[in-house]
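Q: Predict the assembly, please.
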Amino acid sequence: MALSRVFVANRGEIAVRVVHAAHALGMEAVQAYSEADADMLAVRLADASVCVGPPQAAKSYLNGEALIAAAKEAGCDAIHPGYGFLSENAAFADAVEAAGLVFVGPSGKTISRMGDKAAAREAAKEAGVPVVPGSEGLVADEEAALAAAETVGYPVMVKAAAGGGGRGIRIAADADELKRIAPQARAEAKAAFGDGSLYLERVITAPRHIEVQVLADGTNAIHCFERECSLQRRRQKVWEEAPAACLDQATRERICTAAADLARSVGYRGAGTVEFLYDEAAGEFYFIEMNTRIQVEHPVTEMVTGIDLVAWMLRIAGGESLSLSQDDVTLDGHAIEVRINAEDPAMQFMPSPGVVETVSVPPSDAVRFDTMLYDGYAIPPFYDSLLGKLIVHAATRDAAIDAMAEALEGLTIVGPKTTIPLHKALARDASVRSGKVHTQFLEPWLEASPLTAD
Amino acid sequence: MAEIRSPIPGTFYRRPSPDEAPYKEVGDTVAVGEVVGLVEVMKSFIEVKADTAGTITAFKVENEEPVTAGAVLAELDG
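A: Predicted assembly structure:
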């Protein structure tokens, strides 16, 4: 049964996106908001809105009970979680369904399976999807480490099993170095974590971040090609493209098919993204994780495929089967998205909340600006700094970079400091133009050429 | 009497992390440049430092409460 009234349990630009998608399908949208968000654009666009709590996200957008109660009270039949907040919270998905509402996304069971690193790795292996080569389990001693490293391949990362967040990691380029560092790593792990257990993983040098968009209805799964998001700062994506220019047709086919196979084998439902590291020199890709929700950068996929991903999420959640076949999905040209954040790139990306006096975007069919801004909007300080996403679409990658440079010149946001100057500099950069980038490119680049006030 | 004000709007925290003790209690002395709390703004944590030395006589904002830019967080004697 098609949904008729969807509750939007999120804020900012993605809430605007979901409200628009619901309206395009003839559904009503009820917008959740915190006390700090009463004036946000999605509240103005929605058919109704409900205050779900105080400004702090923990008391509003992360308060599952309040959200579900508000959705029921407002007569909604489904909850769209957006991204972030409760979008990948299996207990919330289960609670929504237990309350008799539809969760717009996969089942709680799928969310917890794909959200657990080890379980997701196992699921990928079962589906025949390559994972980063590593020792299967812990290595008992130096001899076992050397034997495992022969299979895994050098350089290897020696990781403390009890470590995390980059702590307790050492890299060995060859067997001699591994012999030397393994005992040290074990002693360090024992001292730091009280547990000297180690495991090994292949080091992928200067990998590129490639991710594949999938759509599935619980039975059928297709891919909507890939995105490249290698330009990252502090693990946050900054600039995203579709398709990935570094892939040849055969590799594209392999990586996209692998993602759809994985989605199918776990009975995936809705829109999801399968993330990979891509070793360009070796032409090999490795599964890293699956995001069981819509992603910030989904518009680049929509631009090159013409598929409305958020509308499909709502249609599938309403019980519709995926009527698109893989052959229906074709690539048209190249799209780029940049994230416009309220941060000052000339001041270590210091957040810059405040009032937006004016915002204007050049009108063009090739430019899309997904945003929650309007003239006079006061950006609250309580949430992330994403103000909007500037997206361009052109026939080729070169033309898309030109279009992005032009669109950035035309985009005006008066009030807060934004990341527009960063994107202008990237659009001018020779390495970005030639596509010679990887996930460790942007931070040294920023060190080497600090941005000055625009 | 001197005041310590928030440099930026956001959420005020008196502790470096939920499991740790507060940076400062009423009656503690602070030196110039010493951290008395954090303000979380757009998921970044900005340290709030004293710009004069003295003894804290009061906190004007509770832990985890929203603050505006320029809001008085604490009062100092000295």
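Residues 142-202 of chain A form a domain with the Dna Ligase; domain 1 fold (CATH 3.30.1490.20). The interface with chain B takes residues 36, 55-56, 342-343, 350-351, 353, 381-385 of chain A (CB under 8 Å).
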